[in-house]
Amino acid sequence: MLEAVDHIDLKVPDLEQAVAWFAGLGLVERRRLPERKSVELALPGEGQVVFELREDATLEAFVIDHVAFRSRSQATDAAAISEATGATFSRTDTFIPVTGKTISDFTDPYGMRWQLSD
Questions:
Q1: What are the CA-CA distances from residue 77 to residues 8, 74, 81, 85, 93 (Å)?
Q2: Which domain CATH number covers 46?
């Protein structure tokens, strides 16, 4: 069963400008991943949704890349989501070394990418 929104991944044209903008909203930097050109920010306190900002200089505006839900059993949740919505997963239980997370990716009928994350 999905537990919460884990993170929202945004592609941004200028990483430092985007970090400053989110800091102005009160979000604080949690982790910086230079190899991904990304920064993770969240509101202060435990259990907050993380915004991962990833730089893409070809863009002119912030773009949502994906929304990730926290899942303790991705295989079970992926099967339930597929059955309920017809979604097809492009990868399931895939470990991403640079982030240290295991993820599963799927898209909605309009092509938006969604994710399960541990």
A1: 19, 5, 6, 12, 11
A2: 3.10.180.10
Q: What is d(CA 92, CA 81) in angstroms, rounded to the nearest whole number?
A: 12
96's enclosing H/E stretch is: strand 89-96
Whole-model pTM over 0.85: yes
- Sorted by sequence, the CB contacts under 8 Å of residue 118 that are 6+ apart come out as 70, 71, 72, 74, 101, 102, 103
What is the share, in percent, of the chain residues with pLDDT greater than 70? 100
Per-residue pLDDT band for 1 (boundaries 50, 70, 90) equals: confident
Question: How many domains does the chain fold into?
Answer: 1
In the numeric block, the tokens 């800091």 are attached to 23
CA angle 64–44–57, rounded 5-degree value: 30
